[in-house]
Specification:
With about 80 residues, the protein is α/β, with parallel strands linked by helices. The chain is about 50% helix and about 20% strand. The protein has a 3-stranded parallel sheet, with helices on both faces.
Length: about 80
């Protein structure tokens, strides 16, 4: 794996990860891509996955469930 790309629901999660990950995993190659809420994130997932051309990239989607059905949310995100 050459890099991990975090797709975050909001900018504050990007700020947290940018500060935390280098201390937890020095040398880890990562990129945080913030979005403007849940709808923006979910709309962009298929586009980003199709368009990304870097080999060996692993994607991690970070989204709140806000008290919803965790399994249903996971299934819906996986389908995207």
């Amino acid at each position: 794996m050459s890099r991990i790309v975090f797709l975050t629901e909001e900018y504050s999660m990007k700020v947290l990860l940018d500060g935390l990950l280098p201390r937890l995993a020095p040398g880890l190659r990562f990129l945080c891509v913030p979005h403007e809420g849940k709808q923006d994130l979910e709309k962009s997932i298929p586009k980003k996955l199709r368009a990304w051309r870097e080999p060996g990239v692993c994607f991690v989607v970070l989204r709140d469930n806000d008290g919803g059905d965790c399994r249903g949310l996971k299934d819906r995100l996986a389908a995207l």
